[in-house]
Amino acid sequence: MPILHSIIHRIDKGDGETPARLVPADAPLSPSTALDDLLAKLNDAYHGKAKNWGRFAEEPPAAFAAELAEYLAGERDFATLTRALAERLTPLIDDHLPVGGHLLAVDHRQGDARYLILALLHHREGFAIDESLGVVPDRQLNLAQMTLAARLDIGQWQAGSASHPYLSWTRDRGGKKLAEAFAETLGAREQRDAGEETRTLLKAFSDYVEHEDLPEEASREKTDALVDYASDQARLGEPITLEELSELVDEERPKAFYEHIRNSDYGLAPEIPPDKRTLNQFRRFTGRAAGVSISFDSHLLGAAVEYDEEGDRLIIKKVPNGLRDQLKRRQ
């Protein structure tokens, strides 16, 4: 994960009587193993956060996007680029956060891709053991507390991809106004609701499994393939590509699931942002007893399937087509 440029600016926030103050760095950071390790942990922490996905707004044009283009063209250095952004973020932090922090910006490569990640880092008080084996206070970066962070896929942005949601930013629970102000500062326009898009994809998958009337074992294998792929993409901070997913879901008919989505009115783009929380909820309930085998996706509970706890019974609201035909023939 080669780092091209990195820098840290400090934003101090006082007791509320005085406005927040930017203390900018004079120059980028020097390369180090510690910085490489911090970037790796920062990426992991960021991918686990709830995020909005989108693109730079075209009208009005985003100031940060214009400055970033100048930096990539060699017309602006990294310190100047990030300082201008930190200056715009300072009043936002003053209005919405109880404390300031250190704004870390890293331009780096990951495989063939190039990313810019930004994060406002806070500290937490901890303890350490010194050379004399005594306990001493120690301040550490708290990567779990990441109220402001963003990640840009530079290559996809420069390519002008129409479907790729190349920009993402944090959306902390209860911090809607902060997320909106942060997006405005970045010049970002929300394009996708990751949770809603992921739920729509899972609905399309459930419909596909039902339409194909797949055996339980095949259904479970395809569910595992979908969840594994989508979870990996979420971990990497990359969107789900429907064509790639379709190939994994059915190797013998690699276009079948993709065509099912395209031919139905799901409204999904070729690439969608994954939502980790929604994926974690997508599991299957399975049970077998007294000659009866039942299996269904967990998200259907309360919708297509209801559990009557008092009567200890399952109510299936929509009988699968193949089972319905068998029942009709028996009658």
Automatic annotation (TrEMBL):
Primary localization: cytoplasm
Keyword Plastid found: no
Any Pfam family hit: NA37
Keyword Cytoplasm included in the entry's annotation: yes
Record keywords: Cytoplasm
Intracellular or extracellular location(s): Cytoplasm, Nucleoid
A GO molecular-function annotation: single-stranded RNA binding
GO CC terms in record: bacterial nucleoid
Family in the record: Belongs to the YejK family.
Annotated protein name in UniProt: Nucleoid-associated protein
Species whose genome carries this gene: Halomonas organivorans
